[in-house]
């Protein structure tokens, strides 16, 4: 098992070098739901500097026709680097990328079963970033029935909504509100959901921080990459969390670090498929 | 000019027949499994078969949605399920998960349409799915007019676009709010429409940011009535109406209006004129404001729905014709909303001009003369001199509206 971090800054990368094996970085203008977006030349420098770490790049936004030409060029350039892989959502990335073996199928909420993972494996995509809306048992079943390299979220705020609309700006414009912050929260029944507006639309994160510590033993022994997302977590706390996972300090310790705003999400809870009336 | 398909939703057999009778060229329905409306009534295999027979006799088509995001537990159901759909003589399946495409190709001869759940926005993605054997692609609702044109120009595959109905606030497939807030799985048919809820909005200091109403994602509906001629000229193959859980009245009204506009334009494109009054009937029917949304590049506050849930129960729909006796000229009506003697109403139906009618004599089920029809689904008889077909509908007459 390798530990992959979605960092929020270069600084955090430098501070976690002894704790992490891999990093997932956004490619500026072609990524969503990341915390750090770099240009190709910045990624190149990072890859060259961190030559003992695996650097993955997310190219995971929904592409428009107007993106395709530059996307093709960016993918060609990325494939010249010693990167570990490219996370993609839009199938256009698959079509335009010449090195299929570099690709990580990362369709967020749709990477939920072994058959579709095997379908992409047969097409040369040997890695998949699993959905956070499946249970640990489903993850185990996927592990048993697929040959693909698996990435599983174990810690952090999870992105749970993405829109091409500028939902905060639209609301403020409609009611002529002047507040100008970079981060908002939408609240309901005591739960606070972080909302972020970007050039590409609006992202909402879960109100609670995923803490899959109790399942870490299985995950670290069976899953290729466990993923730690640093979004909205202070660097020192994030580092303490990584250490707690490393040193088996227990779930309670991590929960305490995060003011108990944690949840195991769907690791042991199935979603309702059909409402019983 | 290329024939364009009008594609309507149908939540059950009754609505399938209504949609076809009122002018849809094809309908899409959910089967017993693997669709995205798990809580709708949906069709049994026998009903799919019956629906297909009804449609095919009238030279129309039926597509079955199989657009769930698969979990492990469903993987082994796919092959048998698709084979059963094929036995029902469905014309196509609408799928999202690529594995289902693969199974459909290996074990059936079903035509495959790609669901909007894949959020295809660009010509390269279209190329991929075309090469996978998909014959039609339902584009993402975020696609603009220019993007659609470019996609059609560069790919010989059928393109289907939404023209009317509710909009997701999110990119389709990239929202699991329902999972996290209500434990209902958005991508497996359980969406609880969190985008229509309201929330307190706070900035990072904890200050409430509040207009006259609370923060919501709620989007206005989509309505492309004004752009139908453009969409025909662009070479789009199919125009899709959203709403498998909508009422018979909604289906009949929306389908008949789009049918009329398509036919009017195709009959005489150079003399076609947009009729604002048809748009008013549509607005009245849905009780929700609508916009063209992303098609013309609009993506601002005018697309949002900020004034709370304004939908009210639609009371325009007064009743549906169950039968007509041409010897006595009595129509048997099933009531849907209150009406009474003296009301001026309109009667509309498949392949007929809308007629005005003033309610005069009302005969109750026991044969007695009554003045008001107040009970839901009450059966009454009205004397109407013009012969009516089954499933014609009665609605309130609004003098500002035109006749269909």
Mean pLDDT of chain B: 90
Level of helix content of chain B?
25-40%
- What's the alpha carbon Rg of chain A, rounded to whole Å? 19 Å
SS class of chain B: alpha/beta
- The general outline of chain A is globular
- As laid out across the biggest beta sheet of chain A, the strand order is 1-2-4-5-6-7-8-14
Give the SSE layout.
The complex is a heterodimer of chains A (277) and B (404).
Chain A: E1 2-6, H1 10-15, E2 22-27, E3 37-38, H2 40-49, E4 54-59, H3 68-80, E5 85-88, H4 91-96, E6 103-105, H5 114-122, E7 127-129, H6 136-145, E8 149-156, E9 159-163, H7 167-174, E10 184-188, E11 191-198, E12 201-205, E13 209-211, H8 216-222, E14 225-229, H9 235-246, H10 251-257, E15 262-263
Chain B: E1 5-9, H1 13-21, E2 26-30, H2 45-57, E3 61-66, H3 72-75, H4 78-87, E4 92-95, H5 98-107, E5 111-114, H6 123-131, E6 136-138, H7 145-154, E7 158-165, H8 177-182, E8 198-203, E9 215-216, E10 221-223, H9 228-234, E11 238-241, H10 248-267, H11 276-286, E12 290-291, E13 317-325, E14 330-335, E15 339-340, E16 344-348, E17 355-358, E18 362-363, E19 369-370, E20 372-373, E21 379-383, E22 393-396
Parallel strand pairs in B: 1-2, 1-11, 2-3, 3-4, 4-5, 5-6, 6-7, 7-11, 10-12
Antiparallel strand pairs in B: 7-10, 8-9, 13-14, 13-22, 14-21, 15-20, 16-17, 16-22, 18-19, 18-21
Helix pairs in contact in B: 1-2, 1-10, 4-5, 10-11
């Amino acid at each position: 098992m390798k530990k992959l971090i979605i960092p929020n800054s270069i600084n955090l990368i430098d501070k976690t070098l002894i704790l992490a094996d891999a990093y997932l970085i956004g490619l500026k203008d072609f990524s969503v739901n990341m915390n750090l977006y770099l240009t190709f030349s910045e990624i190149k420098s990072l890859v060259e500097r961190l030559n003992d770490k695996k650097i993955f790049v997310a190219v995971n936004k929904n592409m428009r026709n107007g993106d395709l030409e530059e996307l093709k060029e960016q993918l060609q350039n990325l494939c010249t680097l010693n990167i570990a892989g490219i996370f993609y959502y839009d199938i256009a990335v698959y079509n335009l990328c010449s090195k299929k073996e570099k690709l990580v199928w990362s369709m967020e909420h749709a990477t939920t079963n072994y058959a579709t993972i095997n379908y992409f494996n047969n097409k040369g995509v040997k890695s998949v970033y699993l959905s956070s809306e499946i249970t640990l048992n489903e993850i185990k079943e996927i592990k048993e029935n697929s040959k693909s390299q698996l990435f599983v979220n174990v810690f952090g705020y999870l992105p749970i909504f993405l829109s091409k609309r500028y939902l905060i700006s639209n609301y403020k414009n409609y009611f002529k509100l002047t507040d100008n912050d970079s981060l908002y929260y939408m609240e309901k029944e005591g739960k606070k959901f972080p909302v972020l507006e970007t050039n590409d639309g609006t992202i909402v994160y879960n109100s609670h921080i995923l803490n899959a510590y109790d399942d870490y033993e299985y995950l670290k022994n069976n899953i290729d990459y466990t993923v730690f997302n640093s979004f909205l977590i202070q660097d020192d706390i994030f580092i303490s969390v990584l250490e707690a996972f490393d040193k088996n300090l227990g779930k309670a310790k991590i929960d305490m670090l995060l003011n108990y705003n944690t949840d195991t999400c769907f690791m042991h809870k199935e979603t309702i498929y059909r409402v019983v009336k | 000019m290329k024939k364009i398909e009008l594609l309507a939703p149908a939540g059950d057999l009754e609505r399938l027949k209504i949609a076809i009778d009122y002018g849809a060229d094809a309908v899409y329905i959910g089967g017993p499994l693997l669709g995205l409306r798990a809580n709708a009534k949906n069709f049994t295999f026998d009903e799919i078969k019956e629906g297909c027979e009804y449609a095919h006799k009238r030279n129309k088509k039926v597509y079955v949605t199989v657009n769930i995001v698969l979990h492990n537990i469903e993987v082994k159901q796919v092959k048998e399920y698709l084979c059963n759909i094929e036995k029902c003589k469905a014309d196509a399946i609408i799928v999202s998960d690529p594995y289902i495409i693969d199974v459909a190709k290996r074990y059936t001869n079903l035509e495959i349409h790609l669901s909007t759940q894949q959020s295809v926005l660009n010509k390269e993605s279209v190329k991929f799915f075309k090469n996978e054997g998909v014959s039609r692609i339902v584009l993402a609702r975020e696609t603009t007019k220019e993007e659609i044109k470019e996609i059609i120009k560069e790919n010989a595959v059928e393109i289907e676009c939404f023209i009317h109905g509710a909009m997701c606030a999110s990119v389709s497939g990239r929202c699991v709010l329902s999972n996290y807030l209500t434990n209902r799985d958005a991508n497996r048919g359980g969406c609880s429409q969190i985008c229509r809820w309201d929330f307190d909005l706070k900035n990072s200091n904890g200050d409430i940011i509040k207009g006259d109403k609370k923060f919501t994602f709620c989007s206005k509906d989509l309505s492309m009535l004004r752009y139908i001629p453009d969409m025909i000229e662009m070479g789009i193959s199919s125009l899709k109406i959203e709403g498998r859980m909508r009422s018979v009245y909604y289906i009949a009204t929306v389908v008949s209006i789009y049918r009329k506009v398509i036919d009017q334009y195709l009959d005489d494109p150079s003399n076609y004129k947009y009729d604002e009054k048809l748009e008013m009937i549509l607005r009245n029917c849905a009780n929700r404001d609508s916009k063209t949304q992303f098609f013309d590049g609009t993506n601002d506050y005018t697309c949002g729905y900020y004034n709370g849930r304004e939908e009210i129960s639609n009371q325009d729909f007064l009743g549906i014709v169950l039968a007509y006796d041409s010897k006595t000229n009595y129509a048997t009506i099933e009531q849907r909303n209150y009406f009474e003697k003296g009301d001026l109403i309109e009667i509309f139906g498949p392949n007929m001009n809308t007629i005005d009618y003033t309610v005069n004599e009302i005969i109750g089920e026991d044969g007695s003369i009554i003045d008001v029809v107040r009970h839901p689904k009450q059966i009454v008889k009205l004397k109407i001199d013009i012969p009516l077909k089954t499933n014609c509908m009665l609605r309130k007459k609004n003098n500002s509206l035109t006749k269909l």
